[in-house]
């Protein structure tokens, strides 16, 4: 028969072993998703972009290359591979597959399709590559992290503002980005419950264009000829809003309440024309944050699977603070907010 002392020693030993196992298990669970294998700094990073022509994308790529340069100085990144699918999701799939074949340590993805990329993104994750998806998101959760603002909230708040401006009654046009892009589709979905609850707002028609001024202006010009009464423009993108204002101006029509984004041209026209405006922001530094998050994950840090970036509001109370910094951004670009590592660490601590 075991003595009381022996039994106590055995129990204590089991307890220590259990605590050790829990510590190991906890550590394993704390590791970020996908990251595995012998991956050591300096890391090789890929940036798989759906298209690079829009100024928003160029500015976003600028924040990515700036962050990579900083990480290179710290000895954490070796090089950056950049691809441009030119709007073709199948091309983007092939480019991501090439990054997988090259065994990159991290892949940053701006998705051209919410569904088409699921398989290749999952494959990258299965190979132990840190995969961070931002802005336009894929459906699969088999990746390291998704980083974005809440596009549903974006649409909801824009629609609520429009309801307030028109006191719940009037004819409006909705301007959307490209169909099939998650950011555009989700903003539109977010607006719908507000529209359903305010039947006095009549949606005359809707547009889907690239996030560029010229096609938006052309689309709105056609709609102005067809619709003598337009009381508001629920625009769900900044360049779209600028195109709308220019179309109204060219046709000699009075400006109407217009929502939008932090596009420099929209903010400047808003102020110049004295119209009633509202905007929020999809910060270009989501790209830089994604690179930083991927490297943090590769270093063994815990990165949340979903990182939600708060939406700021631009209105008459603070538009001047944005315009005061306008000369630091391209004329056809976006005036985005300042960012630094402290902000990134705060967002990744969610």
UniProtKB/TrEMBL annotation:
Q: Where is it located? A: Cell envelope
Write down what this protein is called.
Ribose ABC transporter substrate-binding protein
In what residue span(s) does the Periplasmic binding protein domain sit?
A: 49-301
Q: Does the keyword Signal apply?
A: yes
Sorted alphabetically, the keyword list is: Signal
Q: Does the keyword Signal apply?
A: yes
Q: Where is the signal peptide?
A: 1-30
Please name the InterPro entries in this protein's record: Peripla_BP_I, SBP_2_dom, TAT_signal
Q: What family does the database annotate?
A: Belongs to the bacterial solute-binding protein 2 family.
Species the sequence originates in: Labrys miyagiensis
